[in-house]
Amino acid sequence: MDNYNTAELKTILSDIIKDNITDDAWIWLKAEINKNNSLAVNAAFGIMPRKTGKTAIKLSDSQQALLSSVRPGFTADNWTADKLCRAWLLIEYKEAEKDKYFKTIETLFSVAEMNEQVALYSALPLLPYPELWVKRCAEGIRSNIGTVLEAIMYHNPYPAENLEEAAWNQMILKAFFTEKQIEKIYGLDDRANEELARILIDYAKERYVAGRDVNTMLWYLVKKFVK
Question: Which of 41, 73, 114, 196 is an S-S bond match for 157, by CB 3.0 to 4.6 Å?
Fold first, then answer.
């Protein structure tokens, strides 16, 4: 069950979108949403960049403050117009049956190219039925595509809120291993755990033996478990 005001979130996102795409693109997007069927969602998702463009959106301080108040941990800062519109399309899709909604989103994941994967993983904290996407999120962590990993890790509250401890720990270890910006991961303090500390200490020892530096954020995560 969503722990935020979905209607308010949709309104905020629609206002941001209207400020960042042309009137013609907005009319097209609304028409596609009003069709409200899986075939239309699949088609619109695929051609979104051609309709909305791929320029970086401009987000005012007040809009970001609203987003943060409604959906803690989430930001659309540095998103492109097509990415935001894809996310909005998915949360506006009104499928009453959970299984059908799941099938529609899973179909998109199964055929998605890189930029589409980025949009899908970035949209996870906005989608209904959050329990449905846990396995998909855990699978995404195994990706070797940097932008996909960043979509899951950066300013995305979904992993911290939904992943089991083992998957969360795997994500954090991979973030260090792939030299991601750890401070951009939401929920580090809340999800810190003793097993993760053990894993990270072992990783740090391996780095030192190899004569390599260790990201100082590692010690931030393990300090309260070191006796």
Answer: 73
**95 and 174 fall within a common domain:** no
Claim to verify: residue 212 and residue 121 sit in the same structural domain: no
Nearest to 145 by CA among 174, 111, 104, 110: 174
Name the pTM for this structure.
Answer: 0.94
Does residue 130 contact residue 162 with C-beta atoms inside 8 Å?
Answer: yes
The angle, 0 to 180 degrees and rounded to 10, between the axes of the packed helices 98-111 and 38-52 is 40
pLDDT in tens, 139-177: 999 999 999 999 999 999 999 999 999 999 999 999 999
Q: Mind listing the pLDDT tens digit for each residue in 90-140?
A: 999 987 789 999 999 999 999 999 999 999 999 999 999 999 999 999 999
